[in-house]
Design goal:
The structure is a homohexamer of 302-residue chains. With 302 residues, chain A is mainly α. The first copy, chain A, is built from ten helices and three strands, in the order E-H-H-H-H-H-H-H-H-H-E-E-H. Chain A has a two-stranded parallel ribbon. At the D-E interface, helix 7 of D face helix 7 of E.
Chain lengths: 302, 302, 302, 302, 302, 302
Amino acid sequence: MILKIDQLPIELPKPNNPSPNNAAAVQELLGGKFGEMSTLMNYTYQSFNFRGRKKLRPFYDLICSIAGEEYGHIEVVSYTINLLLTGASKRGMDPTTTPLANGVDARNTYHFIASGQSALPVDSMGNPWTGQNVFSSGNLKLDLLHNFFLECGARANKMRVYEMVDDPTARTMVGYLLVRGGVHVVAYARALEKLTGVQVTKLLPIPDLSNDPFPEARKFMDNKLHLKLYSFSQDDYKQAGLIWNGPHPEDGQPLEFIHGAIPGHTPPDLEEEPQLNAPGGEDFDPQMFADMAKKMGINYAY
Amino acid sequence: MILKIDQLPIELPKPNNPSPNNAAAVQELLGGKFGEMSTLMNYTYQSFNFRGRKKLRPFYDLICSIAGEEYGHIEVVSYTINLLLTGASKRGMDPTTTPLANGVDARNTYHFIASGQSALPVDSMGNPWTGQNVFSSGNLKLDLLHNFFLECGARANKMRVYEMVDDPTARTMVGYLLVRGGVHVVAYARALEKLTGVQVTKLLPIPDLSNDPFPEARKFMDNKLHLKLYSFSQDDYKQAGLIWNGPHPEDGQPLEFIHGAIPGHTPPDLEEEPQLNAPGGEDFDPQMFADMAKKMGINYAY
Amino acid sequence: MILKIDQLPIELPKPNNPSPNNAAAVQELLGGKFGEMSTLMNYTYQSFNFRGRKKLRPFYDLICSIAGEEYGHIEVVSYTINLLLTGASKRGMDPTTTPLANGVDARNTYHFIASGQSALPVDSMGNPWTGQNVFSSGNLKLDLLHNFFLECGARANKMRVYEMVDDPTARTMVGYLLVRGGVHVVAYARALEKLTGVQVTKLLPIPDLSNDPFPEARKFMDNKLHLKLYSFSQDDYKQAGLIWNGPHPEDGQPLEFIHGAIPGHTPPDLEEEPQLNAPGGEDFDPQMFADMAKKMGINYAY
Amino acid sequence: MILKIDQLPIELPKPNNPSPNNAAAVQELLGGKFGEMSTLMNYTYQSFNFRGRKKLRPFYDLICSIAGEEYGHIEVVSYTINLLLTGASKRGMDPTTTPLANGVDARNTYHFIASGQSALPVDSMGNPWTGQNVFSSGNLKLDLLHNFFLECGARANKMRVYEMVDDPTARTMVGYLLVRGGVHVVAYARALEKLTGVQVTKLLPIPDLSNDPFPEARKFMDNKLHLKLYSFSQDDYKQAGLIWNGPHPEDGQPLEFIHGAIPGHTPPDLEEEPQLNAPGGEDFDPQMFADMAKKMGINYAY
Amino acid sequence: MILKIDQLPIELPKPNNPSPNNAAAVQELLGGKFGEMSTLMNYTYQSFNFRGRKKLRPFYDLICSIAGEEYGHIEVVSYTINLLLTGASKRGMDPTTTPLANGVDARNTYHFIASGQSALPVDSMGNPWTGQNVFSSGNLKLDLLHNFFLECGARANKMRVYEMVDDPTARTMVGYLLVRGGVHVVAYARALEKLTGVQVTKLLPIPDLSNDPFPEARKFMDNKLHLKLYSFSQDDYKQAGLIWNGPHPEDGQPLEFIHGAIPGHTPPDLEEEPQLNAPGGEDFDPQMFADMAKKMGINYAY
Amino acid sequence: MILKIDQLPIELPKPNNPSPNNAAAVQELLGGKFGEMSTLMNYTYQSFNFRGRKKLRPFYDLICSIAGEEYGHIEVVSYTINLLLTGASKRGMDPTTTPLANGVDARNTYHFIASGQSALPVDSMGNPWTGQNVFSSGNLKLDLLHNFFLECGARANKMRVYEMVDDPTARTMVGYLLVRGGVHVVAYARALEKLTGVQVTKLLPIPDLSNDPFPEARKFMDNKLHLKLYSFSQDDYKQAGLIWNGPHPEDGQPLEFIHGAIPGHTPPDLEEEPQLNAPGGEDFDPQMFADMAKKMGINYAY
C-alpha cells in the first residue's frame, strides 16, 4: 500500500513559453520504453514478485525504495508536460475562433483532443506505454542487470531530451532526473557488486558523459542529492542501507541512506483552459460545499 | 510523491492448490482493460492533470484518494497471482527432469518463461496493459462519468472472474475488491450527484447483481468496509469528505471518510522456485551483510 | 444484412484549400478511440450479441437503429478527409518533379504512401483503429452506460476537432455530427431512464458546452435534426420508438421516430491524382464497357 | 448510408453442443487478418476513396456491391460464435457455484469476461482486428490485385477452420462463406480481366482445392449461389453487371447479377445467460412499454 | 546460414543536405508494411517452411535467392537513412547549447532519442515493423500470389517515396530498389506462370507507371540490372534458373540467372555525432588493440 | 549483403512425436522479446548504424560476426518448430474428416490457420515479434551493455524452454543455442572489458546456473563449440579476433576466432501436409522443368 503526499520533489519554474512540441518530446521521459512509467513499473512488479526474500532482503528493500521514488518521477514529468501545454492554445468559450488551431500542426494531437492539454502515458511519438516494458524474471542477478541497463538507457534518453529542449521547466526537471536517475544507476551497480563482487560501478558513466556539463544537475549535486537514497517509507525498507553505503564512485563522497521521502514542494496550479471545457463545471455552485465544509469542520474556500 | 507501506490491505489465505490457469484468469483483474492497472493509472493521471483545482478541490481530493487505494489493489491482485503460481511446477535444479512441463499447456506461458511464476502487467490472454486505457479529458463531468463507467465495468469483470475461479485466495481477493470497488462506484456516482444534482447512485447496482451473494464480500461488508473511504494520505485530500458522506445508497448506513490507509497485513512469503533460478544467489554470502548490519545497527537476519 | 445507398446524409461543401494536416486531425473522428468506427462497431456487435431480446426488444431496436446511422458517419468523415486531401500535392505524371514533396512534412505520411490521398481507419496520430475499442458485455445496463459515455466522449472529440479546423467542409461535417451524435447521447440517456427510472438526461450537456455556439450545428437544429431518430431500416427496429419519444431534454420540443434513412445527397466526385496513379487505368478502353452496356441495357457513359 | 435488414443470409442450425474452443477458432473468420472484418472494411474504404469514378464506375459498383454483402458476413460469423457459446457455462444466479469454471481453460477468456459469451472483433488468438488490415492505395489495378489475394487468403482460412470444427452450425456457415467468398474471388479476377485482358480466373482455385469436397458448400452451389452477385442496394451499383457476366470459370454456368439483397432469414434467438447478467434487467417492468406501445400503435409483446 | 559481405550493392552518394524528415519518410521503405523488412522476412520464413521441396525445388530456390537479396535491401535503405540523418543536429559535447533542437519538430523523434541519428525498424510514422507482416500459408500458389502482390505494393510505395524526396542519396537508392524490386515482381509473376500457365506477367506494370520515368532507375536498367537474378549463394539455389529465363516482359531482352551476389561497394563511413555520445569511447585507448593486432597479425589502424 | 548457405549449423533429430504445444512454446525462442529475431535484428541494426568505425572497428566486426551467426539461429529454431508440427494433424484431402481437429485446443491456432503447420515470427503466446525489440542507441558502451543483458535474458528463456519441453529435437536445438548464446554472452562481456577495463565476465553465469547440467549443451562443449567465435564472412570482420581471445571465463580454455561459417548440415525435408494444401501444386507437371533442366544443364530430379 501507499500513502500519497500532495507534493513534488522539486519546485518547477514556469516555462518561458508554452510549447506543445517540447511537451511532446518530454513525453518520451514519461511513457517511452525508458521513461519513468517503465522504471516505476519494473521495480514495482519486481518487488511484488520477489521470491525467497529473507537472505536477500537488502536487495528487496533497495528495489522497493527506488520503486517508491519513481512515483514522484512520473509526477514531476507529468507536471512539466502540463506546464508546457498550459496556454498553448487560445483561451475562450467561442469555438468559431478556432482556438485549438495550434494543435493541427503539433507533434502530439492527443494533447488537444484526448487530454485537456495535459500529460498522457505515451511516448514522444504518441505511442502508448505498454506492459511489455516490464521485465521481472525472478532471477535476482538478471533482474538487477536489467535494472542497471534500464537506468543507463533512461539516462541516455534524459540527456538527449535535455539537448532537444531549452525550456527552464523541462531542463530543471531533467537535471533533477539525471541526478536521481544517477543515484539509481549507482544503486543497481552497487547491488550487483554486493551480489557478485564485480566492480560494476567502474563502468560508469554510461553513456560516457558525466552529469557535470548539465548546470541544472550540478545544482542538485551541490546539494548532495546524488549521494542520498531515500526509503520512501516511514517504517520499511531499512535494509537497503546495507547496499547503499561507501563512497560515491564518481566523486568519492559518502553515500547516505535516509528514511522517508525527499522534502517536497506544492505542485503548481494548472490554469483552466475554457476552450477545452477543462475543467468545466461552470454551473456548479461551490456554496453547497462551503456550507457543508463549515458544518463538518473541513477547510474549503473558493 | 508517495510513501510505501510493506503491507497488503487484507490477509490472503494460501491456495488449496497451485493453478496456473486460475492465475492466468486473475491476470484480467490486473492488466485487463478494466483491471487495477487501469483504475490506478486513470485516477493518477487525472489527478496530475486536474485544471482549476481551487473551487473543485473536493473532486480532486476524491480522485487522489481513490488513486492512492488502487496501488494496494495492483499489489493484492499480484500477490494472489503469485500464490496461485507458487509450486506450480516441479522444484529442483536438474533441468533434464523437465520441471516446467506443466507450463507447456498452461494458458499463460509468460508466467513460466518471462517471469518466475509471478505476475505481469498483462490480461487474461497475456496481452499487455497499455496506456491507451487511460482517459483524462480534463473535463471534470466527463472524467467522472468515465470513472463511474470504468468502475462498473471493473465490477462486472470481478464478478465474472469470481465465477470462474473457486480458489479461496482468489475469492477472498475478489470479494475484497468487489467491496472496495463498490466504494469507488458509489464515490464517483456521488461526485456526479454533487456536480450535477442528478441521482446517479439510483442506477446501482451495475451489473444488476448486488455484492450480497458473494460470501467473501459480505464478510468485509459486515465489517463496514463498504462504508469507508480512506484518504491514503497522512495530511492531504481531506476535502474528499465533502463528497463522501450521507447514507450508503444500498443499505442506508452512514458513509465515513477516514484519514490515512486501510490497516495492513504482512504480505505472504513467496517460496523459492529453484528450477527457475528464482531468486538464485546461491553463491551469495549473507555473512557480509550480517557483519555490516551489526556495525550499522540495521536489523538483518538470515 | 444491409442495403447500401450511394448517398451521404449531408451535402459537403468543397474545402477552401487542400490541407493534409486538417485531414490528419479529422482522422481522429474516424479511427480514434471515440471515432465513428468505434460507435459503428460497438453498436453493431452489441446488436449481434444481444441476449434475451423479447422483453427488451425496444432497446435492441434502438441500438440497431443507431448502428445503422453510424455507417453513414464513417462515410461522411471519410469523404471530408478525401476532400481535404484532394489536390494536396502537385498533379502530373513526372516523378522527378517531386510532386509529393508536401507529404514529407505532413502529419500523416500514410495519406501519401499507403493511400491515394484518402482516408484510412486510423486516428489523428496515424494509429490504427482496433477491435479493443468494442465493448459488449452482454449486460444491458452496463452496455447502455458504456454507450452513453462513448457518445459523450465522442462529443468532446468532435468539439475539439471543430476548434482545431476552420475549413468549411470539416466544420459542416462536424456540425452535423454534433447534432446527430447529440441525438445518440439523448437516446442512450433515455434508454437508461426507461430501464432504471433515473433522470440521466439531466446530466446533459457533457462536456458542459451545448451545441448552440456551433453555427453549423445550429443550422441542422433549425431543421429539427436533433429531434429525429431514424430506424435506418425499411421494415425493422420499429420498437425503438418506445424509447425515443417525449420532449427533448434541452429545448423541450417533441422527439420524433422516423422509419427509414435520412434523405441523402450524391457524394462528391473525387478527382484523379495522377502522380499517385490513382486510379490509373490509362490503358483501359471504356468502349468495351460501353458496347456491353448497350447490349445489356445498363446505363454507362464515359 | 445503409438500410439494415434484421435477417441473416442463411438459416443457421443449432450446434450439437456448446463449444467455447470451436467458437474461439471461428473468431479467425471474423477478426483475423483474412476475416470478414477485413473484407468488409477493405472494400468499404476503397469505395469511399475511389478517385475518378466516371469511366471506371463498373469497378466502383462492383466493390460497393461486395462491400454490402460483407456486412452480412460479419453478422453470420458472429451469430455462429454466439450459438457456439450459448449454454457454454452453468446457468444460474449463484456465483458461489463457480458457474464460469469452464472459462478458465478455454482458449478465449474474453468470451467469458469481456463479452457475455458472445462474439468480439478479435481473431482465433484473441488479438483484436486492426485498421492496419485495410489496403486502399487508390490505384485500381493494385487494389483489385489486393482484393483478389485477400479473398484467396480468406478462402484458405475458411477451408482450414472447416477442417478444425465439425459442428453443423460452423460448417453450414463456412460452407456458405466458401461459396460466397468464391463469388468474390471470381469477381475480382473478372475485374482484373476486364481491366487488363489477362485471364486471371484461370489461376483458380487458390488454394488448389475446389469447393466440391465441402458438402455444405455444394448444397449452396446446387442452388446456384456461386453464380449470383447481388448489388445489396435498391437503386445503386447496377454497373457491376458489366463485370459480373459470362460463364463461371469452374463449371461454365452463366453468371447472374441481381439487384437487391440475398433473401434472408430471421436470426436465432440468443438465450439469456443469467450467470453473466446477460442481459440482466430483472427489475425492469415491461408493462410500461406495453402500455405505451398500445397507445402508439407499435407492436410489442413480452 | 549466411555469410556476410561488408558491402552495399550500390555506391550511395552523399545527401545534399541532412534532412530528418526525408529520413523519416524513407523509413517506410524499411519498416513499413511493404518495406524491405517485410520482403526479407516473408521470403525467409517461406523458405524455412517450404514443404515437399523435391518436385517444387525451383520455386524454393527462387524464394531463397530473392530472400538473400532482400538482406542487402534493408542494408541500403538503412544506410540511406543514416546518411540523411548524419549532421542533422549541432555537433559538440556541450548539452546546454541545445544541440538536438532540430529534433523537437522532426517527424521521427526516435531518430534523436532512441537511436543515434540512425535507422530503426519502424515505418514513416514511427510505428514498428511487426511479424504480422509475414505471410506463410504453406500453399505455394497462394504464397506466390502473396509475394507478387507484396512486390507490387512495395513498388507503389517506392514510387511514392521517390516523389516525396528529391535528395540524390534517397533517389539513387529508390531507383535501384525500383529496378531490383521490378526483378522480383517479374520473378514471382514468372513463378506463377510456370506453376499455372496463366500469363501473369501481362498484368505489369502495377501500378500502371513503368520504371522508365525514373532516371536513377533507368541508369541501372542501362546496365541490364533489370534482367539479372542473383542466387546470393556460392553453391545453392541453382534451380531458380528454371524459372528465371526467357525474355523480359517489358523490353523482351533475355533474363539472366547469375550465381553469387551482386558486385558490391564499400559502405559509407558514418561520422561521429558527439552530441549523442555516438559512438562515445573517448577514454578508450586504441593502442591496446594496436599492440595486440601486431602480435596476432591482424590489420588494425587508428 | 549476404550469401546464403542452404544448411543448418547442426543436425536436428526427428521429434519422438509431433507436438503443437511444444512447438508453441519453442516460438518464444524465435519471436519472443528475447528470441533469435531480437538478437539477429539488434546486432544487424547496430552494425548498419555504427558511427565512427575506424578506431572501434574490432567492436564493429564483433557485432557483425555475431549478427551473421544469428541468422542461422532463426533458421534452426524455425526448423525445430516445423518438425514438431509435421504430422500434427490428420493427413488427407477430405475436409469432412475434420483433419485439423487437433488445432482447436492447441496453444497456437495460427500454426493451423495462418501457416501450414510451420513457424511464424511470433512468441509463445502468438504475439508477433516487433521492431520495438531493437535497441540501437549509437553509444557503444550502452549498446554493448544492452547486448550483454539481452544475451543473458535470452539465456534464461532458453533454459526455461528446455525445462518445459523434453522432445529431443527441441532439446538438441536448445542445447546448441545455450552454447552458442553462451559464446555471445562472453563476447559482449569481453567487449565491455576491452572498452572499460572492468571484469564483466566475472558476473557469469547469468542466470546463476551454468550450461553443465544440460547434456545436449555439454556434448557441444565437448567439441569446444563454446570456445569458438566465427566471423560468418569470407573476407570481413577479422578484427573481431582482437576482442575474442584469451581464456574462457568458466573453464579457462583458450578462445578461438575462426573465419567463415560453422560447418553445416543439410536441413531436414519437411513432409507435405495435404490437408493444408501445403504445398499443393498437384496439377503442376514437373516434366516441363525436367526438360528445361536438361537443356540448361541444371540438376533437377523429381
